[in-house]
Each structure stands twice: as structure tokens, then as C-alpha cells.
Design a protein that fits this description.
two-stranded antiparallel sheet; Dihydrofolate Reductase, subunit A; 5 helices; alpha/beta; single chain
Length: 188
């Protein structure tokens, strides 16, 4: 049985995951409730995928001593390795072929942190099983989009809604287009 690939991400109401200059102040200044479900989700994954731009942003914002994904397998997709931390593996291989192999390995759920290009590559190849998207009470008008124009159509099934004060978390399973059944790989 393959592992479940989950996008767990926050977006503005108009669909942006960051401003053009990678600023997330709009997200961090919104009133939430505790960690907005983060710890519960984090405990159900053992592998994390992220792009180099997202990795660099994390290091800039929190510093390498406070890297938030220690103790998990953390794969950073890049063509130019950067400062490496103990828990980080740089991957220069194609994201699709790497992730296909990764899903066949023993382990738990896989979290696709971001960014937008990484998510898009996985989505174009129908590899994402679940979308957990938290909507922030902000309209940015422009920025780095979660979805791009002309992305392929996908059918989803809503399986959960949670409110964390001003945030709303929507949980969708991707439906298998061949038979319209939910693509749940049994890793909840």
C-alpha cells in the first residue's frame, strides 16, 4: 500500500500562499486558535517535501538552530544545494520519479509543504491524495498562487471543516477520476 501525499497549507481567501516577496506577515498576524491544528497534523506525517525557495525562507525566518522539521525525513528539491542540516536531504532528481519511489517505501504520510511549483508538479501528475487548506481572512490581490491558470481539473470530496477563530480549515480527499471513488490509501 502506498503512502498518502498530503498538501497542508494556508492561503489567502483569493488563493495566494505568499506575497511576491515571500512575505507571510498577513498570515502570521491573523487571529487563530492555538496552533490551528498544526501539531495534530504534524504528528501524523514522517516525511516532508519542500522546494528550495521554501527551505531558504524557513532558514531566514527561524534560523538553522530552530529548524522546525528536525526528527522527520525532510527532502528539499533543488538543483543547487545550500547549507545542509542534519535532518535535511537535498534532492536534485525529478520530483515525480523521486516521490513515486518514496511512496513505495515503508513509512507514514508525506507532507508537501510547498512551494507552489513543487505542488504544481505533483498535482499535474495526479500524485496528491489529500488537500488540507486553511483559508486566512485576507485578500492579497497578488502573490504566489496556490493554483495556476490552466491547471488540470480534479474532483475532490470534502471530508472535514474546522474553524480556528478567523481561519477555516477545509479537508478534501482527491477522487480517483477513473471510477469517481475517493482515493484514500488507508493512511489516516
Amino acid at each position: 500500500m502506498s503512502r498518502k501525499l498530503i498538501v497542508f497549507i494556508a492561503t489567502s481567501l483569493d488563493g495566494y500562499i505568499a506575497t511576491q516577496d515571500d512575505n507571510l506577515e498577513w498570515l502570521l498576524s491573523s487571529e487563530g486558535d492555538g496552533d490551528n491544528g498544526y501539531e495534530s497534523f504534524y504528528n501524523m506525517v514522517d516525511t516532508i517535501l519542500l522546494g528550495r525557495r521554501t527551505y531558504d525562507w524557513i532558514l531566514r525566518e527561524v534560523g538553522k538552530d530552530h529548524f522546525p522539521y528536525r526528527g522527520k525525513r525532510c527532502c528539499v528539491f533543488t538543483s543547487t544545494p545550500a547549507e545542509k542540516l542534519d535532518s535535511v536531504e537535498f534532492v536534485s532528481e525529478n520530483v515525480v520519479s523521486f516521490t513515486q519511489r518514496l511512496r513505495l517505501e515503508e513509512g507514514g504520510n508525506i507532507w508537501v509543504v510547498g512551494g507552489g511549483k513543487l505542488i504544481r508538479g505533483l498535482r499535474e501528475n495526479h500524485m496528491i491524495d489529500e488537500w488540507i487548506v486553511t483559508i486566512a481572512p485576507t485578500l492579497l490581490g497578488n502573490g504566489i498562487p496556490l493554483f495556476y491558470l490552466n491547471d488540470n481539473e480534479e474532483r475532490l470530496r470534502l471530508v472535514g471543516i474546522r474553524q480556528y477563530q478567523q481561519f477555516v480549515m477545509l479537508d478534501y480527499l482527491v477522487q480517483d477520476s477513473s471510477d469517481s471513488k475517493v482515493s484514500d490509501n488507508g493512511n489516516s
